[in-house]
Amino acid sequence: MTKIFAHRGSAGTHPENTMIAFYEAERVEADGIELDVQMTKDGALVVIHDETIDRTTDGTGWVKDFIYKELQQFNAVYKFAEQYDFCRIPLLEEVLQWIEPTELLLNIELKNGLIEYKKLEEKVIDMVRHYHLEHRVVLSSFNHNSMALCHRLAPEIETAILYMKSLCQPWKYMRAIGASGLHPYHGTVTESFVRQAHDHRVAVRPFTINKAGLMKKMFQYQVDAIFTDYPSKAKQLLNNQKTT
Ligand code: G3P
Ligand code: CA
């Protein structure tokens, strides 16, 4: 059965990558959440998609140029200002603390494609281990060197590669990296590709699946999971399929 990961929380209905969006994912019984991690000037791991705070907060500037105490002053309510007064940029640690007693799965995307954050991999892994979440976490990144490093540092934690364009037999490449999950742009995914990936014991979790028609197609392809900004809608569709 395809699992539903709430992308950046429930980003279609709540301020992305905030605790409110993560609580919503749990409320609608998503199987897991996806979030993005960047690092502040004082080495704090923060949950925010972009390298800058311009798009999703009321501030401007690079995440790497703020200490966390400064960063937490900004309002990450984004386009949901009418529904919510103030949402803080969360620390990764807050999310791990909250998720630990739940049954949710967690995909931590390391946002180190543009900026090489010093010791990002080590810090994320230490924190995952501290909360004993090794077997509920998948680490992913568009930076495949970073995923190879994560696998060397923590072979017990699943790693996955993110990519936008179609790859030829990626399972061969993945073996070199030690990754076992493929997180492709949905446009590259076909039914036969999913079948081949499964033959090679590789999980396929495409992003970002927001339209009902596309959700149905991915369910039919039997992908392992989808990332969606609308986990409630995806759950409903999946439940309907089960009963018909
Ligand atoms: O992990 C899937 C997806 O989140 C990757 O793209 O840009 O939404 O982080 P993006
Ligand atoms: Ca992401």
TrEMBL record:
Catalytic class of the enzyme: hydrolase
Superkingdom as given in the UniProt entry: Bacteria
PROSITE patterns assigned: GP_PDE
Keyword line: Hydrolase
Signal peptide limits: none
GP-PDE domain: residues covered: 2-238
Any one GO molecular-function label of the UniProt entry: glycerophosphodiester phosphodiesterase activity
EC number assigned by the record: 3.1.4.46
GO biological process: lipid metabolic process
Protein name per Swiss-Prot or TrEMBL: Glycerophosphoryl diester phosphodiesterase
Native source organism of the sequence: Thermaerobacillus caldiproteolyticus
